[in-house]
Amino acid sequence: MVLVLKPGSVNLSELAAVYWNGEAAKLDPACDGAIEKAAARIAEIAAGNAPVYGINTGFGKLASIRIDAADTATLQRNLILSHCCGVGAPLPDNVVRLIMALKLVSLGRGASGVRLALVRLLEAMLEKGVTPVIPEKGSVGASGDLAPLAHMAAVMMGEGEAFFAGDRLSGADALRKAGLTPVQLAAKEGLALINGTQVSTALALAGLFRAHRAARAALVTGALSTDAAMGSPAPFHPDIHTLRGHQGQIDSAAALRGLLDGSEIRVSHIEGDERVQDPYCIRCQPQVDGACLDLLRQAARTLEIEANAATDNPLVLSDDTVVSGGNFHAEPVAFAADQIAIANCEIGAIAQRRIALLVDPALSFGLPAFLSKKPGLNSGLMIAEVTSAALMSENKQMSHPASVDSTPTSANQEDHVSMACHGARRLLGMTENLFAIIGIEALCSAQGVELRAPLKTSPVLAQVIDSLRQRVPVLEDDRYMAQDLEKAAATVRNGVLTGAVDQNLLPDL
Predict the structure, then answer these.
(1) 19 an active-site residue?
(2) Domain end (from 196, 217, 234)
């Protein structure tokens, strides 16, 4: 399937399809006219004498240096090659494909002045699976994601490196094997390709999609933990949350009610239970997870707007003037990434406390120590809980906002930067930690519910346990645990855990 992207109205579900499913993408043909008109305007300026930034001048601090018309192509080629300064491991393929799709959308606004040939090459690379090797580090999130986007642009020129059909090849070989021809960049085209927030935005979107998947899974495991701990669903009563009014809280409480509906475990201890209130990690799930959901939704709106934006410089405006501005500054993306990081951290923090509750016989209302049927001889899930604590702490350390940092670059021409790119990139590691925390909670809460037999959990949660047990068996005696933890994390990462649930029960972005 090839997605047809309409700049200005591209939505999160389309972008998620590129990220999760590897969908190819192309621009709506209705964009062609505006793209060609802007390209003609740039060609006109390039042929004239009036200096216009990035078309017939140098870049950044070198903007005052006039470039001869005969050197236009060399200027653009030099720009790309000199900016290929990324370091570190290559970004994941699905992130790079999302970067390419976002660049298409930005160019499709008809304000960048590139020829249709560049657009068609990007579309063909997505369709045929030519994925540029983009090192993960090197952008400060202002004046565009210059270094990483230059590595993408280099492949379009037949330079750099790309993955194709499972091999890492030179850019020229990758294009050739895909049946594609490199382009020679015309006036402003190199600048249009590397000025922009597409790397920061793609990484932030990846973090958003992953954090939201984890958030939905955390409601499922939180409901399982509530039943395993013989907690009360009374704090999830809709009136409590309506009286406060936060939509995320209302939606999270509704999800927990639906997940627990029909559980025999709760009915079994309504009478004779001397506990008046459950710990916060059980009772305040809607308030905490709901607040995190609201943060994710706010970040989602910001990133959806940014995904549809023209963020290079200068821009061809509606009156045919070409004006330099600062849309390449990724401050909105940096703020969104920081919000996602905070939400990610807190989802894991409260989940970890539920894990700690379940393995502690002083708190778990009758469950054996560390959820082992033979505690002492077996350590059970003792160290799985320790691992979850380590991951929670690591996420806390990584949640410090990146957006409050700045350092001047490019001889002080770019004297305030957003740090959006690494602020967003850290979300990949943070969400991996969160997947593991939620996976560990799934193992603990499922074991806890099973130890309540012959009492049964809700039909919905029973399906979740069945799905988990197809991958990780019940822990009877101690065994090598690392593979169990990875398999449990994978059920969160790949959506299997939430896939066992009616999707209407769980909140969307």
Answers:
(1) no
(2) 196
Closest CA to 17 of 1, 34, 30, 33: 1
Ranges 6-15, 398-407, 429-438: which has the least confidence: 398-407
Verify that 97 and 234 share a domain, yes or no.
Answer: no
Confidence check: pLDDT of 60 > 90: no
Task: List, for residues 273-293, the tens digit of each pLDDT value.
Answer: 667 789 999 999 999 999 999
CB 128 within 8 A of CB 223: no
Return the DSSP state at 314. Answer: S
Q: Which of 471, 470, 463, 469 is nearest to 500 (CA)?
A: 463
- For residue 138, give the DSSP letter: -
For residue 414, give the 3-state DSSP assignment. strand
The torsion angles phi and psi of 66, rounded to 5 degrees, stand at: -80, 140
Domain encompassing residue 143: 2-196
CATH of the domain at 455: 1.20.200.10
Q: Stretch 211-233: mean pLDDT, rounded? A: 97
CA distance 86 to 162: 14
Report strand pairing: 24-27 vs 135-137: unpaired
Average pLDDT, integer, range 227-252: 97
Same structural domain for residues 222 and 190?
no
Amino acid, res. 443: L
Cα maximum dimension of the chain:
89
Residues 6+ apart with CB under 8 A from 48: none
Q: For 292-302, what is the mean pLDDT? A: 98
Encode pLDDT of 66-94 as tens digits. 777 778 888 899 999 999 999 999 999 99
Is position 320 within any domain?
Answer: no
Q: Which of 19, 53, 280, 480 is catalytic?
A: 53
Query: What predicted TM-score, i.e. pTM, was given to this entire model?
Result: 0.96
pLDDT at 27 over 70: yes
- CA–CA separation, 357 and 94 (whole Å): 37
Domain boundary among 158, 180, 196: 196
CATH number at residue 54: 1.10.275.10
Q: How far apart are the C-alpha atoms of 38 and 44, rounded to whole Å?
A: 10
Based on the domain organization, do 147 and 264 belong to the same domain?
Answer: no
Q: Label residue 47 by pLDDT band (50, 70, 90).
A: confident
